[in-house]
Amino acid sequence: MNIISVIPIIKGVLKKELTYFSSKDISVGDIVTVLIRKKKVKALVTKIESLSSKKISVRSSDFELKKIINIHSKSPLSSGFIEAIRKTSEYHVLSIGATLFRLIPQDFLEKGTTKSEERVTLSTTHEELAFQASFEDRISFYKTYIRERFAKKESLYICLPNTRDVEIFQGVLSKGIETYLFSLHGDLSKKKTKETLGKLKTETHPFVVLGTPKFIYTMTNTMSTIVLEHESSPVYKTFVEPLFDIRTFVRMFAKEAKKKLIIADTILQTETIWEIKEELLDTLMPANFRFQVKNERIILDTKNREEGVPWAPITEGLKSRIEKSIENKQRVFLFTLRKGLAPFTNCNDCKKTLTCKKCDTPLTLYKQKSSKERIFVCNTCKHNTETLTTCPYCNSWNLTPLGIGTEMLEDYLKENIPEAKVFVLDQNKAKTKTQAKKIIKEYESTPGAVMIATELALHHQMKEVPLVGIVSFDSLFAIPSFRIHERILHLLIHLEDMSLNSFIVQTKNIEAPILKTFKDNTFIQYYNNEITERQNFNYPPFTTLIKIIPDTRTSKDEIKKIAEKFFGQYKPNLFITTHKRKKVPAILLKVPREEWNPRLKEVSQRLKETLFGFPLSWTIHIDPENT
């Protein structure tokens, strides 16, 4: 007789484990039928324990165990997959059901599998290898490695962060293996997705799957290798609840399922490089910290302006190059971090920044489409404020817009380079992927066109552009994250990869260490500086950050008492954060690696019980991107 833990496969139910008993031959991953509120429902078996080992707890429980009615079918998920979900959930302080249904569509579980669909499991050994090399070197390796795996009748799964990466990899890897290369991403139609999944079930030849995190569940037992590509991408972290890092799940799954895992990128995450340096992670080949300079890298100092010349968002150096490109019918791509006219507005008298009355976020200046008048909009809660206003702090009219937004650049180009055909790609101009693709298509088919874009453009595949420029490099440091240098470095690499001839950066601080690192191509020095700074400030990988956001019913005084009572030893930091478009109080913990990190067999039991003991209305975020 066994105690069986299950997750009900039903909409609207609390995604937590329920307990039953059975003497049937049941395995982890089976789909069984159970009784919930007198109704028969399907459930996924997540854990099996002997009744004899649980007799005391069963006798002392205040409810009666119910019997599993029958076994409905075998699950398409392996026990290793489910155990990885269990460990991922524990590490991120989530219910197993929340993680499970975030990674796997409900209808996939409901169908189960048949005997004809079951395949022989390969006998593989778990191995984790880091692979830091240029994009070209990684592709060259994959082409050889795929053919080696095929010769051994083994399949691969290459996990990529977004549709753009899937399309790029499909383009460079498909030659010669078109029939055995399958792509899965969110932009596919339901019909195409169903067709592809059907082929994976019936294909007898080894194959390669290029998939986004949404399709991680298609990792079958026939796959010997998982490649976690573009490992540094923040897209691997979920931005809506449940909050967790899919990279953590992939590493745990590879270990539980005994798969070979290759963790790859041009520049890996700082934590991953630290693991290599500390000999906690082996490498596929020695990590490369110097890459061939692709084209001309130009740094323009925005402080060097001629006297009497009014301020402009574009320097004369960049302007002349844009004009020359347009004359030669060559396209230009200009990157700026923010949409609107100006991301910030400061009062010149009291030196404070204008913020939203509702959520305290800095207001962004926009131009209205209908009247062309200016208006302040909060990008967090969308609250509007008229610009005919005085400073709310000192009542002064002396207000100055700061920063460079997409609308400001568009107005400048139309006024100063009227011959330019300007396209804008931000969330205001492209609210859907279809709209974004339409803008990109028109831009790429227009000789001498200029594209002004935010990070939104980087999620779409684009052809190389002769001239690429970052208009305001300094604004990148406004992002509140301890990973900001890492993010900026990857952004520089990404944008330079887009450029065909010249890559230009405008900045007030030409001596910025991260900029010097990029220009001099000395990435090892960047890592040494970054890891020293993180150690000094007690940031990952030396600690694990845990962000706790209580519900709105909990007062600031109560939050302070809770922090002192339960987390005093970690010297908790109480601060204000943005959560669900509101400014709310939160607790930040820096927990030693010895107590909480994904490589531990068991995280701190005391801390785990404390975190899981908080109400479900509280949000607990392990390894938050921003603090």
Describe the structure.
The protein is an alpha/beta fold and 627 residues long. It is built from 17 helices and 28 strands. The chain has a 7-stranded parallel beta sheet with strand order 9-10-8-11-12-7-13, with helices on both faces. A 6-stranded mixed beta sheet has the order 5-2-1-4-3-6. A 6-stranded parallel beta sheet has the order 14-24-23-15-22-21, sandwiched between helices. A hairpin with a 2-residue loop joins strand 26 and strand 27. Helix 2 (79-91) packs across helix 8. The longest helix has 17 residues, at 135-151. The chain is globular. Mean pLDDT is 87; it is low at 114-120.
Average pLDDT metric: 87
Largest sheet: 7 strands, parallel
How much strand content do the residues show? Answer: 15-25%
- Specify the overall morphology: globular
Beta strand count: 28
Terminal CA distance = 48 Å
What proportion of the residues is helical, as a percent range? Answer: 25-40%
Structural class: alpha/beta
Count helical runs.
17
Output the radius of gyration. Answer: 27 Å
Strand order of the largest sheet: 9-10-8-11-12-7-13
Spans of 5+ residues with little confidence (pLDDT < 50)? 114-120
